[in-house]
Design brief:
The chain is built from 13 helices and eight strands. The chain is α/β, with parallel strands linked by helices. The protein is globular.
Length: 286
């Protein structure tokens, strides 16, 4: 389900904007998604785990996708992983994430919430952004009921073909049952948002492709619902360095983690070969 080109290009404002600015990487069904977005205002979400009390520059791509979704007349949902942060996403990691206490997760939630308020307009209107926490529905699940009701819709064979899981196994690195369940929980998030808020689109980075596809397939199996997934490329600089890292570490988005001057310096030092691409992705300049 790679991104397929359309002869005339996307018709919806959102997909046309993403295509022109370099955000599009993979889509489960680009033509059908385009048609849905042309039929009226849609709802989409992107998830963010609460592993620190600030997001960093690497998160700006999904944040800008949500911002463009709202600016083109749609409703964005920022999902905070209050529950999934207790497990850790194994996607393309060599080791398990450290466990976080509930107190640390709540502290991180407060810090991260401030980031979104600078990029999205929140409120009760039809295109106003909303913020949700998956602890609200995952936290109260009964494990046996969850296994019985949700487990039959997931194939372990299919999950093992996910690129992020396959790479861990090929390197003979440990992948715990706890982490293996992450894909199922993310798919369940998508199902809950589709049922409760009419959210039919999940956005994310390309490292989330396997998890997103699982959610799309789960929605079809459990409710006969057509859901969509769309990813942006994971960015590296022209030198091959991972986007969002500087000599001194992560480029945080909260001023109490990184001073405005240091944040400005990071962008000031962008290599010439990256300037045009970064202006299209990280600004709204025409």
């Amino acid at each position: 389900m790679k991104l397929s080109s359309q002869p005339t290009g996307p018709r919806s404002d959102f997909l046309r904007t993403l295509s022109e600015r370099g955000f599009l990487h993979q889509c489960t069904d680009l033509g059908a998604l385009d048609g849905w977005l042309c039929s009226g205002a849609g709802t989409a979400y992107n998830g963010f785990d609460l592993t620190a009390d600030s997001l960093h520059v690497g998160h700006l791509i999904p944040i800008m996708m949500l911002r463009w979704f709202q600016k083109t007349g749609n409703k964005p949902i920022a999902l905070l992983g209050g529950a999934t942060s207790r497990l850790g996403d194994p996607s393309f990691r060599d080791t398990s994430r450290p466990f976080l206490s509930q107190e640390q997760i709540m502290k991180n939630l407060i810090g991260i919430r401030r980031v979104f308020e600078r990029f999205l307009a929140f409120g009760d209107g039809p295109t106003d952004a909303v913020m949700v926490n998956n602890a609200d529905w995952l936290g109260g699940l009964n494990y046996l009921d969850f296994l019985r009701d949700i487990g039959p819709h997931f194939s372990v064979n299919r999950m093992l073909t996910s690129e992020s899981v396959r790479q861990r196994l090929e390197r003979e690195q440990s992948l715990s049952l706890l982490e293996f369940n992450y894909m199922v929980m993310q798919a369940y998030d998508f199902h809950v948002l589709a049922e409760s808020r009419g959210c039919l689109l999940q956005l994310g980075g390309s490292d989330q492709w396997g998890n997103i596809v699982s959610g799309v397939e789960f929605g079809r199996r459990i409710g006969g619902r057509t859901l969509f997934g769309l990813t942006a490329p994971l960015l590296t600089t022209s030198s091959g360095a991972k986007m969002g890292k500087s000599v001194s570490g992560a480029v945080w988005l909260n001023a109490d983690r990184l001073s405005p001057y240091e944040f400005w310096q990071f962008w000031r030092n962008t290599g010439d070969a990256d300037v045009g691409r970064f202006l299209r992705l990280f600004t709204e300049l025409p």
